[in-house]
Amino acid sequence: MSDLTLDRSARDVLRLAQPRPRWFAPGLAAGTTSAVMAVALLACSAWLITRAAEMPSLAFLGMAVVGVRAFAIFRSVFRYVERLTSHDAAFRQLAELRLGIFRRIVPVAPAGLATTGRGDLLTRLVRDVDDLQDLPLRVVQPLLVAGITASLSVVGIWLIVPAAGLTLLVCLLLAGVLGTLFSGSLAARAERELAPLRGALADEVLEIVENLDVLTAFDALQPRLEELARIDERLRRATLRRSVGVGVQSAVVSLFAGAATLGALYFGIPELTGGGGLLSPELLGPTLVVAVLVPMAVFEVFGMVPLAAGAWRQVRVSAMRVADVVPAAPPAEIPVDVVDPQVLVSLNQADAPVVLELTDLGARWPGQRDPGVAGVTLRLAPGDRVHLAGPSGAGKTTLAQTLVRFLDYTGSYRLNGVEVRLLAQSEVRQVVGLCEQRPWLFDDSIRQNLLFARDTATDTELNVVLTRVGLADWAARRGGLDARVGERGALVSGGQAQRIALARALLADFPVLIVDEPTANVDSAGADALVRDILTAAADAHRAVLLISHTPVPDELVTARVTLPAHA
User: Fold this and answer.
1) Which of 10, 78, 254, 406 would disulfide-bridge 111, Cβ 3.0–4.6 Å?
2) In Å, how far are 17, 191, 379, 518, 538 from 385, measured between CA atoms?
């Protein structure tokens, strides 16, 4: 994150965060009107109090009294309208931003997100995306409101006392530049660090919570807690440095607000006898007070400028962090659907059963120079049950991810003679199903975890498929289909999780089923039974099964064996 130059992907994210003009304009108009009313209220009040001290007839004060009341009321009204409309626009755009981000995530998930920790990824997609709503609320709108209000105020003071107007302009420019510079020198690094540190903290907390039992068992919990404390301390110091920067910039703005007031006095007092500006040919005491006090209200509005600069630094970092995980263009290792309808074809399953053929297939993970798997030649026809083995790191899981089009490939990969690059990825995944090494179970009932495969299935069909995978009696003892499985399957064993995942795959009725290391989280006593049950349940005249397993498989359960060599 050292290079803060915005690339095209980050700029695209920022464009997604900025509300449409027709949503943004009402809030900008109301905010500008409220700020102008606040300045006008102080000017009118100053004139009224000073003129009233001269004890004129009440007729001279009537208009000013009405003005004070009107400005006070309408300032609050337009402030409320500004909050209502600007936040409504930001929240409406935030919904579109989230949808846009997830549309860009889907093509690269899950392989394209493997290099980002899950806690950090969650922070990027929740906290950093939420921070992007500050772009219209704390950056664009405050800068425009402050600029318009300051410009109008400078013109107004210049018309009364030209030298005081120029002094106000110079003080505003110096306050904006120096306030931003001082704040940036003290807080810029902290503001850039806040989002990454929040991500690192979330990642560390998630790792500790998920692996608490293992860390405790191996007496490794204390070092991880110490690392968590170090990250938390860095986050605290960064937050403190940012607060110091905000305090210093407020002091700079206040300093120049006083300077503008003194400048108005310096240039205005001599004009009391020599005449005023265009609006006041003869400068009177009440008019001078207006020129002297208005800068206070102007600087209260203008104080948003340095704050907007700080908010922009945070928004920029958040945009870059979001863009890092959702690039505008997927990495070369991630497959992309062919968009040309003349090239894209459809797989016709009605004509013939599905046959999968690989010829010298290779694949690599995003960001990796060496291939994850290479030189695989394989044929899977209906009824085949192939056992794929190989040493750790040979690329078995990489191959499984490639077959369901999470990774792109070199060589040839065909379904019924059609190169899968010419098929929509969604169509490939309707034909080739994957039971992963660590199957994802939702924190819901057994029924709901199965219905993700086919939402029209009846309870009878669900019970039948549970019987096929050997879970009918277990589910009945747990309370039937309404039994919950816990977060990520915390309430079931590794073998039961694999059987639920297999039941889900059977319910989806994939013609080609890939089962990746089903015994990885199962004790040795249950591994053989699980492999046997998987191959028996999946055996079907119209289905091909590729079992990826380091566990020995009896010859009678498979029709062929393939062994991947170890990488050199």
Assistant:
1) 406
2) 50, 56, 11, 15, 9
- Cβ neighbourhood burial of 256 (10 Å; 0-12, 13-18, 19+): buried
Residue 544 gets which letter from DSSP? E
Geometric angle at alpha carbon 345, from 339 and 349, rounded to 5°? 140
State the Cα angle at 321 between 317 and 323, rounded to 5°.
115
- 134-168 tens-digit pLDDT: 999 999 999 999 999 999 999 988 888 888 889 99
How are strands ordered across the β-sheet holding 410-415?
A: 373-380, 356-363, 410-415, 418-419
Query: Angle CA(350)–CA(355)–CA(360) in degrees, nearest 5?
Result: 145
For residues 429-444, average pLDDT: 86
Distance (Å, whole) CA 165 – CA 221: 64
Give the other-Cβ count within 10 Å of 549's Cβ. Answer: 22
pTM score: 0.70
Q: Whole-angstrom Cα distance, residue 517 to residue 531?
A: 10
Measured torsion, CA atoms of residues 93, 95, 96, 97, in degrees rounded to the nearest 10: 80
Cα radius of gyration (the chain): 34
What is the spatial distance between Cα 74 and Cα 92, in angstroms, rounded to a whole number? 26
* Residues 353 and 543 sit within 8 Å (Cβ to Cβ): no
Cα gap 254→64, rounded to integer Å: 28
For the chain, counts of helices (H) and of strands (E): 20, 9
